[in-house]
Design a protein that fits this description.
globular, binds magnesium ion, single chain, binds zinc ion, Ribonucleotide Reductase Protein R1, domain 1, Rossmann fold, 320 residues, 22% strand, binds guanosine-5'-diphosphate, OB fold (Dihydrolipoamide Acetyltransferase, E2P), alpha/beta, six-stranded mixed sheet, 3 domains
C-alpha cells in the first residue's frame, strides 16, 4: 500500500530525529579521531539505530557511527571510514548504491546482486506468486532465480521439472533441491560465489533450513556479531550480511525473507513480463494491454503457443 502523506511525514520526522542523534554521537567520536588517520573502505554488515558494524577488506569488524549529514547506511552499503583511537570507527561517506531493496518506502538493504524466490512442493508452488516476484525483480533490474525445494516430496520429478520449463526458457535459473536430503545443493552453492544474495518466499518453504545448511554456524555468527557490537544482543531480526563459507554473501532478516509485494502498477506489470515486453513494440497500439486489441503481438504469440498459458493467465489475474 502506498504511504499516506501523514505516514511519510512521520517517517521523515523520525529520520531527521535519528540523524540529529547520530550527529551528536558522531561529534563525540570525531574528537577521538587520530589526526593522520587514513580512510579505509568497508562494507556495512548491519545497522543498529544510528550505529553500524563495518567490515574492512581484511574481514575485521568495527563498531561505527556516521559523520553528520551523510545519511543512514544499511546492510550492504559500501562506505569509507576512519578508525578512532579506541578502535571504533566513523563512517565518512557512503558510496552510491548499485541496487536498493525498499519496503514501504524504507530502505532495508543495498548492493544486492541476486534475488532468489524459494518455493516448495509443500506448501505447493503457485505460478502467480512466482510471477509477482519476477515482476518485482524485473522492475528493480535485479536478476532473480527460482529455488524449488522439497523435491523429494514429488511423486513425479519429471513433471515437476516440466512445470518450470517455461521459466527456464525465459532464462530464469531454476534449481530443484531438497534441503532435507541435501540434493543438488552443491551445484546451487557454486552459483552463490562472489555475489550478494537474498532469499525471498512465503513461510514454510524452507528458507531457514536452506540458510542453515549454507551457513551451518549461523547462530554462532549471530552471537559473534552481538559481542562485537557491544550494543546488547544482536538478533536475526537485524538485516545483516553473512558470509557463506563456500563463497558469496547472504543479506538476511525475517523482514527481508518475508518481503511483501506491494501493489504493482499496470506499467510495472507490463514491463515485468519480459517476453511480453519484448513483443509489445510489434503490437498495433503503443499502449496495447494485450487483452482485446486487434493486431496484438502478445495474443498472436499466445495463439501460436510461443507464450505460456500460465504466464498469460497470471498476467490477466495480476492486472488491476
Ligand atoms: N520434506 C522436506 N521438508 C523440508 C525441506 N526443507 C525444509 N523442510 C521443512 O519445512 C518446514 C519449514 O521450513 P523452514 O526452513 O522453517 O521454512 P521457512 O518458513 O521458509 O523458513 C520445516 O519443518 C522444515 O524441516 C525439504 O527439503 N524437504
Ligand atoms: Mg524461517
Ligand atoms: Zn498487445
Amino acid at each position: 500500500m502506498p504511504l499516506t502523506r501523514k505516514q511519510k511525514w512521520r517517517i521523515d520526522k523520525v529520520q531527521s530525529e535519528k540523524i540529529a542523534r547520530a550527529g551528536k554521537a558522531a561529534s563525540k567520536v570525531e574528537s577521538q579521531l587520530d589526526k593522520d588517520e587514513i580512510e579505509h573502505s568497508g562494507k556495512v554488515i548491519t545497522r543498529y539505530g544510528q550505529r553500524q558494524l563495518v567490515e574492512n577488506e581484511q574481514g575485521r569488524v568495527f563498531q561505527s557511527v556516521s559523520r553528520q549529514n551523510i545519511g543512514l547506511s544499511v546492510a550492504g552499503d559500501r562506505v569509507l571510514f576512519q578508525k578512532t583511537k579506541h578502535n571504533e570507527a566513523i563512517v565518512t561517506a557512503i558510496y552510491p548504491r548499485d541496487s536498493e531493496l525498499k519496503r514501504q518506502g524504507k530502505l532495508i538493504a543495498a548492493n544486492i546482486d541476486q534475488l532468489w524466490i524459494v518455493v516448495a512442493l509443500e506448501p505447493h508452488y503457485e505460478f502467480e506468486l512466482i510471477d509477482r516476484y519476477l515482476i518485482m525483480a524485473e522492475n528493480s533490474k535485479l536478476p532473480i532465480g527460482i529455488i524449488v525445494n522439497k523435491i523429494e516430496l514429488s511423486s513425479d520429478e519429471k513433471s515437476t521439472t516440466k512445470d518450470f520449463m517455461h521459466y527456464k526458457s525465459l532464462d530464469y535459473d531454476v534449481h530443484f533441491v531438497s534441503v532435507k536430503n541435501q540434493t543438488n545443493l552443491d551445484t546451487f552453492k557454486e552459483k552463490l560465489v562472489n555475489k550478494s544474495h537474498i532469499f525471498l518466499g512465503q513461510s514454510g518453504v524452507g528458507k531457514s533450513s536452506l540458510i542453515n545448511s549454507l551457513i551451518p554456524d549461523l547462530e554462532l555468527r549471530v552471537s559473534e556479531i552481538s559481542n562485537k557490537s557491544k550494543l546488547g544482543k544482536h538478533t536475526t531480526t537485524n538485516t545483516t550480511i553473512y558470509h557463506i563459507p563456500s563463497g558469496g554473501d547472504l543479506i538476511d532478516s525475517p523482514g527481508v525473507r518475508e518481503f511483501q509485494l506491494e501493489n504493482l502498477t499496470e506499467l510495472e506489470i507490463k514491463n515485468g513480463f519480459k517476453e511480453f515486453k519484448a513483443l509489445s513494440s510489434e503490437c498495433r497500439f503503443r499502449d496495447c494491454k494485450h487483452i482485446n486489441e486487434p493486431n496484438c503481438a502478445v495474443k498472436d504469440s499466445l495463439d501460436q503457443g510461443k507464450i505460456s498459458n500460465s504466464r498469460y493467465q497470471s498476467y490477466l489475474n495480476i492486472l488491476p
